[in-house]
Design brief:
heterodimer; A: 199 residues; alpha/beta; Aconitase, domain 4; 7-stranded mixed sheet; 8 helices; globular; disordered N terminus; B: 464 residues; Aconitase, domain 3; 2 domains; 5-stranded parallel sheet; 4-stranded parallel sheet; 18 strands; 17% strand
């Protein structure tokens, strides 16, 4: 049972990257709590990394990578333990709202990973070695690209020997590739859930 | 040979779908105003009703002011979020404890306090500190808003089963060492990602000796080491705590429940994917000096050097110290403190207020310190007044505020100003967590009390 709630489908993505070589980026940095007061899912992208990206007057901080004209792209690359802290799904909404389709790190916090997957934002885990290679490649040449192939579960630093496979639960992969979401599925098995309750 | 976690999880698994994703049945869902509106909107868009409204309980907590709660919320967006929660609950016949209600408070404080949280349950909430409830022997964890919508729609969520981990604390705790020190110590040893992918059971003689509320502080912060959740096997302490609480089973049902709950423990031959043991005697009063909860030290120690770190970690570490205005090798004792915050789902329960109040009794708040003492619930506030804690606090120069999440995440007016230092009994010291450019040092109620009366970071054992 699939309704119109379907999200963007994800198959392959080839893009330049926005590198953020900082470890333990918590969801308070991704979207500070004072911006969680909305009652809709839209508009969080403007405040992504708010306090790193803008000064108190709201002017862009030049040194922050998202404000550099050199670094644009649909893939955010960050240091290990990305998305730790609060369960706020607003973090995934903010990243997606700012135009990213995938986040690459060597390690994701559990709740963030689930939230990303539930919003069609693909979290890709690479080795520490490959992560360092991506940061280095992007530093040397901002036009460096990553190629992510979801059906094949591979990620490649284009023009290099770095190509790795990544893991994703088969069910989640199918959801992402087809734009399904879990609510439809769970509602479709309500009678099975009712039977479980009787046990 | 099953773990306690396995037993509860497996008993709640409706179906395992290909690749290991589990349809997990949820006994109880808690909701608050910040992470639920989009979930209700999703249900409306789909034309679906809440599946089991009687298994859902709501309390506004994140946004609410901690003064003058009888007045309308002044900040329009906060007011709208709280009003939206009220309306969503009314439309869907969900029990809500509104601001000012005798049951209102931080959802993770009122769940156990009312007896809604019980051993053996699965519990979710759109809030990472849902792990708190694990102290009563349940599988409780934080979820995102899409998952809140799933649970509202079907009383189930889809979830991969985490790995299991056991952390044992053996031996006797030293003078002035409380549960907050234990969990800050564990996180300082294992790091903020040390529990990622795992569900943690806390065990060992030191854990067994703790009160129910002290256990909640430990489970509360299991998410700060990345764990999916934390739990402690129920025992007599758990049953004594729950007995007679409003929503706990009564009479014959109580006896049957205790019988059932007494079976909830890891088998002697249970094997955990990861297991670590610490000696309770090694734990000292703790405080954090950096911008994640893993950056903690015994209060008598110096701020660590980054020499032995790899370059990626080193730059992150230096960024954190620069934010805090601290240098490697410095003493933390004697650092100036501008604010003290006592409260939150970590340390906003009555035992925390008692510990703080006993310490400051007969002493005086330092002039340079602004202190916010915020009870975790209306019930905690009532007890603090009845027990005379408020009077003692007032004599020492402190004011007891009204319940809410408050300065833990500064969504209401309780914000630490830029550049100021706050010793906080809450759970996160992330950059800007307590307000833009605020600087947080996490600690337990006693370290907070010692800072409040001296105006600088002070070892509480010297004043005891």
């Amino acid at each position: 049972m699939i309704t119109e709630i379907m999200r963007n489908k994800f198959t392959t993505l080839c893009s330049t990257v926005v590198p953020l070589p900082i470890e333990n980026i918590d969801t308070d940095q991704i979207i500070p709590a004072r911006f969680l007061k909305a009652t809709t899912r839209e508009g969080f992208g403007e405040n992504l990394f708010r306090d790193w990206r803008f000064d108190k007057e709201g002017n862009p901080k030049e040194e922050f990578v998202m404000n550099s004209p050199k670094y644009k792209g649909q893939i955010l690359v960050a240091g290990k333990n990305f998305g730790c802290g609060s369960s706020r799904e607003h973090a995934a909404w903010a990243i997606e709202g700012a135009g990213f389709r995938a986040v690459v790190s060597s390690f994701f916090a559990d709740i963030f990973r689930n939230n990303a997957l539930n919003n069609g934002l693909l979290p890709v885990v690479v080795s520490e070695e490959m992560l360092a290679a991506i940061f280095n490649a992007a530093k040397v040449d901002p036009s460096a690209q990553l190629m992510i192939d979801l059906p094949a579960q591979t990620i490649e630093l284009v023009g290099s020997d770095y190509k790795e496979t990544f893991e994703i639960a088969p069910y989640k992969k199918e959801c992402l590739m087809n734009g399904y979401d879990d609510v439809d599925f769970l509602v479709s098995i309500r009678s099975e859930i009712e039977a479980f309750e009787q046990k | 040979m099953n773990t306690l976690f396995d037993k509860i999880w497996d008993a709640h698994t409706v179906r395992v779908i290909d690749g290991g994703s589990c349809v997990l049945y949820i006994d109880r869902q808690y909701i608050h105003e910040v992470t639920s509106p989009q979930a209700f909107a999703g249900l409306r868009r789909r034309g679906i009703e809440v599946f089991r409204p009687q298994q859902v309980t709501a309390s506004p907590d994140h946004n609410i002011p901690t003064l003058n709660q009888h007045l309308p919320i002044a900040e329009p967006q906060s007011a709208e979020q709280v009003a939206t929660l009220m309306q969503n609950c009314a439309e869907n016949k969900i029990t809500i404890f509104p601001i000012g209600d005798e049951h209102n408070g931080i959802i993770h404080v009122i769940g156990p306090q009312t007896g809604l949280t019980q051993p053996g349950m699965t519990i979710v909430c759109g809030d990472s500190h849902t792990s708190t409830h694990g102290a009563l022997g349940c599988v409780a964890f934080g979820i995102g808003t899409s998952e809140v919508e799933m649970a509202l729609a079907s009383q189930c969520i889809l979830q991969s089963k985490p790995k299991s981990m056991r952390i044992n604390i053996e031996g006797e705790l030293g003078k002035g060492v409380y549960s907050k020190d234990i969990i800050l110590y564990i996180i300082s040893k294992l790091g903020t990602g040390g529990g990622t992918g795992h569900f943690v059971e806390f065990a060992g003689s030191a854990i067994r000796s703790l009160s129910m509320e002290a256990r909640m502080t430990i489970c509360n912060m299991s998410i700060e080491m990345g764990a999916r959740g934390g739990m402690i096997a129920p025992d007599q302490t758990t049953f004594d705590y729950l007995k007679g609480r409003e929503f706990a089973p009564q009479g014959e049902e109580w006896d049957a429940a205790v019988e059932r709950w007494s079976q909830l423990r890891s088998d002697d031959d249970a094997v955990f994917d990861k297991e670590v043991t610490f000696d309770a005697a090694d734990i000292k009063p703790m405080i954090t000096y950096g911008t994640n909860p893993g950056m903690g030290i015994a209060i008598e120690e110096d701020i660590p050097s980054s020499e032995s770190m790899d370059s990626a970690s080193q730059s992150t570490y230096r960024k954190a110290l620069a934010y805090m205005g601290f240098a490697e090798g410095e003493k933390i004792i004697g650092k100036k403190v501008d604010y003290v915050f006592v409260g939150s789902c970590t340390n906003g329960r009555i035992e925390d207020l008692r510990a703080f109040t006993n310490f400051v009794k007969g002493k005086r708040k330092a002039d340079n310190v602004t202190a916010w003492i915020v009870p975790g619930s209306k019930e905690v506030e009532r007890m603090a007044i009845e027990e005379g804690l408020r009077d003692v606090l007032q004599e020492a120069g402190f004011e007891l505020r009204q319940p809410g999440c408050s300065a833990c995440l500064a969504m209401n007016e309780d914000k630490i100003p830029a550049g100021k230092y706050c010793v906080a009994t809450s759970n996160r010291n992330f950059e800007g967590r307590q307000g833009p450019d605020s600087r947080t040092m996490l600690a337990g109620p006693l370290v907070a009390a010692a800072a409040a009366v001296t105006g600088v970071v002070t070892d509480p054992r010297e004043l005891m």
